Amino acid sequence: MEPLEQLTKEDLAPIKMIVFDVDGVLVPRGTKIHQEGNTTTLETKVIAEKQIEQIRELNKKGFLINISSGRGLYMLQEMFRAILPFVSLTYESGSATWYQGKLYQHINSFEKNKDIFPKLKAVHDERIKGFEPKEFIITIHCTEKVQKIEDIVNADPNLCTVWNGEAYDILIKNDQTKALGLRHVRDIFNLQKENVMAIGDNYNDHELLEESGLPISADKSRVEGRFYVPLEGEFLPADVLMQKVLSLKD
Ligand SMILES: [Mg+2]
C-alpha cells in the first residue's frame, strides 16, 4: 500500500465513479443507540457542510457518487438530503440501492434470517445496547463482543457475523456484502471495475475494495487498498481523498 500522496492523474484517468463508506470515512466512527423496552433512541450523524460541498465539486467535475454503508436507507437519506438528486445510496451492506427515488433490491435475505431474529432477541446480556432498525440485515450494537451471539449465528450454516468494533452485522454468508451492491451499481451505471474508486475503513469494506479498480483504505490495520489515508488525522479520510482528487482534476 502506498500513501495517498502518491496518487497520480494517470491513476484517476479511468475513474468515473467514487464510492464512499460513511462511518469512519465521511463522519467519525461511533453510533449512539439506546434501547429500553419498545423505545429505540438512535442519533443521526450529520455530514459536515464542507464534505457536502466537496461531493458537489466532484459531481461538477463529472464523477458519479455512490454511498455504500451498513446503515439503513432512512438514515442515509437524512444524512445526504442536500445532494440526493445526484447521489446513489447503497445500504445495509450491499443489500439494495436507492437512486433518484427508485429502489433496486440486490438480495432477498428473508428466508435465511427470519428464524434467527427471535433467538437473538431472546439473549439478555448487559453488553447488548440495542438492535439498529434494518430491513435486510440484523445489526446488534454491543459494548464489546458477546460470545452467545456468535454461537447462535455460527450454528446456522447460511449466516455469518461481522464485528466492527461497536456492533455485529448478521449477514447471509458470502453473498450479502458491499461487493454485491457495487456489482449491481456498476450495472445500473454501465461501468467496469476499473472505472470505480472506493474508500472504506472497516472489515465490512474488504469485499467492496476488492471489487473496485482503485481501492483506498482509511484504516490499513483493518482493510487493504492500493493507497491508504490515515484514519485519525487533521481531516476525515473522505476529506483527504476529495482534496487530493479535486487537486488532480482540471
Ligand atoms: Mg466504515
Characterization of this structure:
- By secondary structure, the protein is an alpha/beta fold.
- The chain has two domains: 2-107 and 176-248, Rossmann fold, CATH 3.40.50.1000; 110-172, Hypothetical Protein Ta0175, Chain: A, domain 2 (Alpha-Beta Complex), CATH 3.90.1070.
- Helix content is 28%, strand content 26%.
- It contains nine helices and 15 strands.
- It has a nine-stranded mixed sheet, sandwiched between helices. Strands 9-10-12-11 form a four-stranded antiparallel sheet, covered by helices on one side.
- Helix 2 (49-60) runs parallel beside helix 9 (237-248).
- The protein is globular.
- 40% of the residues are buried.
- The model has no long low-confidence stretch (mean pLDDT 96).
- Magnesium ion binds next to loops.
